[in-house]
Amino acid sequence: MTDITASSAASAPNRERIKASLRRRQAAETRFRAFGIGSVLIAVGFVVFLFSTILHDGLPAFWQPVVTVDVFFDPEIIEVDPKPEPLEGQSAAEFQRASLDWQRQVTMVNWNRIIQNSVAREAPDVELSAREIQALIESNERYRLRDMFVVSPGLLGSTVPLELLASANVDVWLKGDIDRSLGNDRQQLPEATRILADRFYEDGRIRMAFASTLFTNTDSRNAPAEAGLLGAFIGSLYMMLIVIVLAVPIGVASAIYLEEFAPKNKITDLIEVNINNLAAVPSIVFGLLGAAVFINYFQLPLSAPLVGGLVLTLMTLPTVIIATRAALRAVPPSLRQAALGLGASKSQAVFHHVLPVTYPGILTATIIGVAQAIGETAPLLLIGMNAFVTTLPTTPLDQSTALPVQIFLWEGNENRNYFEPKTAAAIIILLAVMLVLNAIAIILRSRFERRA
Amino acid sequence: MNSLVVAALLLVLLAVSYQVGLSRSRAVATGSTLKMHSRPNYHGMMVALWCLIPAALILLAWLFFGDNIERSYTLSLLPPEVVNSDPNQLRDVLRRVEQISTGYGVVGDSQPYENAAGQALQEFRLLTFWSIVAAAAAVGIIGLLAMRARIAPRLRARNEFETIIKFLLAVCSGIAILTTVGIVASLLREALRFFTFISPIDFFFGTVWSPRFAATASGDYGQYGLLPLLWGTLMVASIAMMVAIPLGLMSAIYLAEYAPRKVRAVAKPMIEILAGIPSVIYGFFALVTLGPALSALGDMIGVPIRATSALTAGIAMGIMIIPFVSSLSDDIITQVPRAMRDGSLGMGATKSETIKRVILPAALPGIVGAFLLAVSKAFGETMIVVLAAGNAPILRFNPFDATSTVTVSIVNQLTGDTNFASPQSLVAFALGLTLFVMTLGLNVIALYVVRKYREQYE
Amino acid sequence: MMFNAPESQKMNTNAAPVAIADPKKVDLPTGFKTVRTPDPEPRPVRVHADDVCVFYGSKQALFDVSIDIPEKAVTAFIGPSGCGKSTFLRCLNRMNDTIEGARVEGKITLDGEDLYDPKLDVVELRARIGMVFQKPNPFPKTIFENVAYGPRIHGLARSKTDLEQIVVESLKKASLFNEVKDRLHEVGTGLSGGQQQRLCIARAIAVSPEVILMDEPCSALDPIATAKIEELIDELRANYTIVIVTHSMQQAARVSQRTAFFHLGILVEEGPTEMMFTSPAEKRTQDYITGRFG
Predict the structure, then answer these.
(1) Any idea which of A235-239, A404-408, B302-306, B407-411 has the lowest mean pLDDT?
(2) Beta strands in B118-265 (DSSP E)
(3) For B345, which of A211, A342, B326, B388 is 20 to 30 Å away at the CA?
C-alpha cells in the first residue's frame, strides 16, 4: 500500500531476488514432479506390459487343434489273442502275468498304421506317405487307441469317430507361430502335411478344442502336444501343504515365544538378528542347504516334494515369524493388561485374548509366505526337482517337479515355437493359483475381521 | 488298515485320558474342602499329555526301527548260503518273500524256504503289530493312571501345562537358529572339501572359469576362477540398481508426497504386484520379450546387443526390484515427521526443494539401508540370470554381451546327477559360501543402518 | 492457571477440526457479527481478511472471519481447542494448501494484494509471511545450515560472506547468537527446546519476512524458555508484524497489543488486548477469559 515501512523497505531487494528466481524454481518443481509421475507410469506400465505379454502369448495355448478321424480297428493289423480272464485256482500273480503277456501283445500292434490308414481314408484324393500322415497326429495318440482296445477288446473290426490330437507342429503351423513363408527346408512339417492340415482346418475336420491335456496330463517329451501340468501341480500342492503344515505352526509358535514370553537378553537378541538375516538370505542358499543336509546327509530321495517342502518351509519360516510378530506387536498392550488384570495367566492372556485378534495378520503372513514359496524355483533345482517326470506323484516321496520348475523346463525346450505359448499358459496357471490364494486370504481376512 | 488302527488308538487314548482327567478333577473338587488350584480342563490336558506322549514315543520308535527289525528277522529265516549270496540275488529273494507274505504270490515256482519265510514273516508282522499297539496302549494307560493319581487340589496343573507349552514354543524359535547353523555348517564343510581339490587362491583370484565335466577328466578338474562370476554378478546387479533405484525412489517420492490419495490407493498396490511375481516369470519375460526388443533396438542404433546379455538380465531384475525399493523408501520417507515438511514449506521452499534439501537428507540413512538390501537381493537372484544372461562365464566388460553370475554357476554345477565327491559339484558350495557372506555383510550393515534411522525418530 | 492445559498436538499438525460439544453454544454461526473495538490510535493495516471460510472436505472449520492485522504490533489469537485459530493462522500464508481436501473461501490481502490470487506464487508469499511452528522443528542439519536454508533456496545471498552475514544477523536478532557462536557447525537438533525454537525464529527471520506467524511457539517449552521467547517477540515487534496463536491467556496479555477471540470457528470478538482482558464486550469472551469454559 502507500505506507512504505522500514521492514518492507529492507526486504524490497529480497523480493526482487525471489521474484527473479521464481521461474527457474517452478520449472525445477515441474521437472521433478514429471520425473515422479514418469517413474510411477513406467512402473505401472511394466505391470501392464508384463501381464499383457503373458496373456497375449499364453491364452492361445489353452486351445489346441484336434482332428476328427473315423478310426477303423482293423482286424488285419490287430492280431492278438482273446483277453485273458481270471481262472479258478490261479494265483493273483499268475493272472497278473497272463494279463501282462496279453497287454504286451496289444502293445506290439502297429497302432500307428491304424491311424495312418484311417487318416488316409479321410483324404482319399491325396497321395500321402506314412511319414507325412504321421506328422499330422500327435504320436502318443496311438496309446490312446491301445488303451481303448485294452478296456474294450470288442472294438475289433468296428469304426469309431474319434478326435485325435494334432501334433505340436500342426499347432504351431495353424496358429501361425512359425513364419508360413519360410522355405520347405526350414519348416517343421512336410509340405503335404501342411496342405492337409490347412485343408482339414478349412473343412472343419480340424477344430480348436480346449487344451484339457494341460490340466490332466503330466509332462511328456515325445508327445509335446500332450504335455500337461498335472504332475507339477500335484508336486506344488504337496509342497504347499508341507509348508502350511510346518511353517505356519512353527513360525507362529516362535513369533509368540519371541514376542510374548522370551526374556529380553543376548540370546533372544541373537535369535532376532538371526531371523532378520535369514529373511534376506538368497533362496538358492536354502537349496544348497537342502542338497547338503536332506539329500547328502539324511539320504532323502532326489526330486521328492517332501524335500522341496522342507526347504521351502525353512525359507518361508522367517517371513511368517516376522509378519506374525508385527501382528502381535500391533495388539494394544491394554488388551494384555486387561486380561492379566482379571487374573488370567500370561499364557491365557496370550492364547485366549491376544492371539485371536492377530488371526487376520497371521493369515496374511501365511499367504504371503506360501505364495512366495509356491513361486520359488532356484532352490528346487538344486534338490533335483527339475527331473523329467512323467508319472503322477502319489506320495510326497515320489519323484515330482513343481509348477515354476515346469515353467523353467518348458522355457528351455528346444521346440521354442511350440513351447513358448505353452510356457506362457503355464505361467497364467501359476499366476491364477497365486491369485486364488490371495483371494482366499482376502475372504478369510474379512470374515475374521468381522468377527473380531 | 494299520495306520487306521494306530490313528484310532491315539484318538481313543486322547478322548479317554482327557475325560478321565476332567472327571477325576471334578470328583476331587467336590470331595475336598480345598479350592482347586487349576481348572478341570487343565487336569484333563495334563492327563492326555501323560498318556499320549509315551504311547506316541513307542509308535515312533517302531516307525524308525521296525523295518530293520523285520529285515533282520527275515534274514534269520533264510538259509545262510542265500544270505551270503550276491546282493542282487538276495534282494530278489527278499522281494519274493515279501510278496508271499502279503498273499500276492509269486510267478513260477518258489523255493520251500521262501514259502516258509513268507509264512513266518506274515505271522511275525501280525504279532509285532498287535504287540506294539498293545504296548503303546499299555504305556499310555500307565501314564494316564500315574497322572490321574497326581490330581489333587494343590496340583499346579495349569502351570505345568503352560511350562510344557512354553518349552515347545521356545523349541520352535530355536529352529531359526538351527537353520542358520545348518546353512553355515553345510556350506563351510562342503566348501572346505572343495578347497582340498582346488586351492583357495586359485578360486578367489582365478580369472578363468572352466570346470571340466566330471566324467571326462580323471586328474584334471578344470579351472575355477571366481572373478568372472563375481564380475558378472556385480555388472548385472549394477544394471538392476540403475533401473530400480531411480524408478523405485521417484515413484515412492511421488506417491508419498505428490499423489492424491486416490492415485496412491491405485498405483501403490499395482506396483507391489511386481514384487509378488515369481522370478522365473521375469526370466520368461526377459527371454521372450525384453531380450529380442533390446536386440532390435541395438540394431536400430547400431550397437550390437545380444538378446541374452547382462543388460537384459539386469533390466528384468531391476523391474523386479522396483517395488522392493519403492515400498522400503516409502516407509522411510513417510517416517520423516510432518513438522520437517511444514518447516520448509512455511519458509517458501517449493515441494521439490523440500524433498531434495530436507526430506531426502533426513531419510538418507534409511534409504541407503534400503538400497543395500536391494543390492543383496540382486546378488542372490537366480532364475532371471539363469534364463536371460546368456551363461558365458568370461571376464569381459561389455554389458551388451552374455555373462554369468555366481548363482548361475551354482545352478549349473549342482543340477543333474549330484556327486558330492567331485570338485565339479562341491564348487557350488564354495560359491554359495561366497554369496552368503556377501549378502550377509550387506544385510547386517543395512539392518543396522535402518534400525539406527528408526531410533532417530522414535 | 487453569487454561494452560496443552492443546492436543495433533490439532496443529493435521488441523482436523475437533467438534467441541459446548453447552453454551446458543446461536448458529451464520449471520453472526464479530464485535470489534478499534485501537485508540489506529495503526496502519498490513493484512486484511474478509469473510474467510475454511472447509476440510465437507466440514466447515471457519465461518466468515474478517479481521485487520496492524503492522509492527503483535496480534494474539486466543480461544479453546478446535476453535479455528490455528486454521485461520495457516490461511495467512496458505499453509492450508498442503492439506488434502482443504478449501479456503473469502479474501485475504497483504498490502492490498490478494493472497489467493491464482497468479500469485505461494513461494514468494511464504517468503514474505514467515511461520514458526508449535513444536520446534529444526532440520537435521547444522545450526548454520538451518538458518542459511531460506537464503539459499531463495537465492538471497550474493556471496559466501553475504550468507554468513545474514546468518549471524538473524541469529543475533533471535538472541541466539551468543549461545551458539562457537558451535555454528554442530547439529541444530542438539540444542535445548527453547534454543531450538529461537533457531526456528532465526531461520524464519533470515529471509526478511514482513509478517511472522507463530503457532503456539511456546507450548512445548518450559517457563524459562517461554519467558525468553516472549522477550524476543517483544523485541521483534519493532520491525515485524507478528501474529501469534496461543493457548495461554497470560501470554496473550503479556506479548500482544491486539487480541482476537475465536470460538467454534467464529471470530467472536477482537480489540486492544488491555480492553479484551478487562472489559470484553461479548459474554462468551468474558466467560472464556474468566475460565468458565475452554
Answers:
(1) B302-306
(2) 209-211, 222-224
(3) B326
Select the more confidently predicted residue: A6 or A336.
Answer: A336
The CATH number for A399's domain is: 1.10.3720.10
The ipTM is: 0.88
Mark whether A331 and A186 lie in a shared domain.
no
Question: Both A257 and A316 in a single domain?
Answer: yes
Q: What are phi and psi of C45, to 5 degrees?
A: -90, 135
**Pairing between β-strand C266-272 and β-strand C35-36 as defined by DSSP bridges:** parallel
Q: Is the sign of the CA dihedral A401, A404, A410, A411 positive or negative?
A: negative
A112-125 per-position pLDDT tens digit: 999 999 999 888 88
Q: pLDDT of A355-374, one tens digit each?
A: 888 888 888 888 888 988 99
For residue range B123-148, what is the model confidence (pLDDT) as tens digits?
888 888 889 889 999 999 998 888 88
Q: Tell me the nearest-neighbour CA distance from C109 into chain A, angstroms.
A: 11
Has residue A83 been placed in a domain? yes
- The candidate with the shortest Cα–Cα distance to C203, out of C263, C152, C259, C276, is C152
| DSSP of A215-267 | HH----SS-GGG--SHHHHHHHHHHHHHHHHHHHHHHHHHHHIIIII--SSHH
Stretch among A278-282, B96-100, C102-106 having the lowest mean pLDDT: B96-100
- Best to test chain A binding among C156, C169, C205, C240 (most A CBs inside 10 Å): C156
The second-level CATH assignment, the architecture, of C43-289 is 3-Layer(aba) Sandwich (3.40)
CB of C55 within 8 A of CB of C95?
A: no
Contact A44 B271 (CB under 8 A): yes
Say if residues A249 and A166 touch (Cβ distance below 8 Å). Answer: no
Phi/psi-derived region of residue A74, left when phi > 0, alpha when psi is between -120 and 50, beta in every other case? beta
Claim to verify: residue A263 and residue A384 sit in the same structural domain: yes
**Domain range for residue A289?**
230-451
Q: Does B157 touch chain A (CB under 8 A)?
A: no
What's the Cα-to-Cα distance from A392 to each of A386, B54, B371, rounded to whole Å?
A: 15, 37, 44
If asked whether residues A205 and A234 sit together in one domain, one would say no
CATH 1.10.3720.10, chain B: domain bounds: 205-456
Q: Which residue has the cell 543395500?
A: B372
Q: Considering the domain boundaries, does residue A345 fall inside one? A: yes
- C71, A5: Cβ pair inside 8 Å? yes
Residues in chain A: 452
Touching check for C210 and chain A: CB below 8 Å?
yes
- Weakest mean pLDDT among B34-43, B275-284, C249-258: B34-43
Task: Give the amino acid at A220.
Answer: S
The DSSP call for residue C187 is: B
pLDDT tens digits, one per residue of B339-361: 899 999 998 899 999 999 999 98
Residue C203 to residue B372: CA distance in whole angstroms: 35
Q: Which residues in chain B have their CB less than 8 angstroms from residue A262's CB?
A: 170, 173
Total domains, chain A: 2
Across the interface, whether the CB atoms of B173 and A254 are under 8 A apart is answered: yes
Q: How far is CA B46 from the centre of its chain?
A: 34
Q: How far apart are CA A316 and CA B176, in angstroms?
A: 11
- Same domain (yes/no): A173, A300: no
Residue A187 located in a structural domain: yes
In a domain, A13, yes or no: no
> Which among A3, A8, A22 has the least Cβ separation from residue C124?
A22
* Nearest chain A Cα distance for residue B242, angstroms: 13
Q: Where are the domains of chain C?
A: 43-289
**Which homologous superfamily does the CATH classification assign to the domain defined by B205-456?**
MetI-like (1.10.3720.10)
Distance CA(A324)–CA(A253), nearest Å, equals 9
Q: How confident is the model at residue C16 (pLDDT cuts 50, 70, 90)?
A: very low
Give the cell for residue A174. Answer: 495353424
